[in-house]
Specification:
Blueprint lengths: L4 E4 L2 H15 L10 E8 L3 H13 L3 E13 L2 E9 L10 E9 L3 H14 L4 E7 L9 E5 L4 E4 L9
Parallel strand pairs: 1-8, 2-3, 2-5, 5-6, 6-7
Antiparallel strand pairs: 3-4
Amino acid sequence: MSEPNKRFVTWFELTQRCKLLADAICVDPSPQANVDFHLVAIGSGGWIPARLVGGYLEKKGCVVSYSSITIKSYFEKQQAEIDIQSTPSKIGDDGCIVILVDDLVDTGDTMDAAFRWVHDQFKITAQSAVVFYKPKSLYVPDAYSEIVDNNEWIVFPYETEDSE
């Protein structure tokens, strides 16, 4: 297997991609629509995208609340067994749209685990949104801002280990 191509995402690109993601999630609701979203950031990669997407949704007049779930699926840059480490005790209010947010869907294992956990714990069906989506993923997100090559290693501006 060949080495993945590294793609360094800038802060500017990330914010623009998150704006596109917010546009895909909520297409300019009328102020009377009173659309409430609860964004569940999948940590640690989804924390910053969830906050950025939430900010853009708020600019559209949506009401946004947040929580996070921490799932580890990589160890030293290698795919590892899914480990759900911290979870919210509550997700959203009645009637809000729950969206799981992550920076990337690669194999889909992490998003699938989060989706199943939320459904099992809270008996709700969530939607999913990611900044980058690899088509090899077994999990297809409901919204994404860009499809990337399966052999691309995305390096986000908030990551330090791959930035050198």
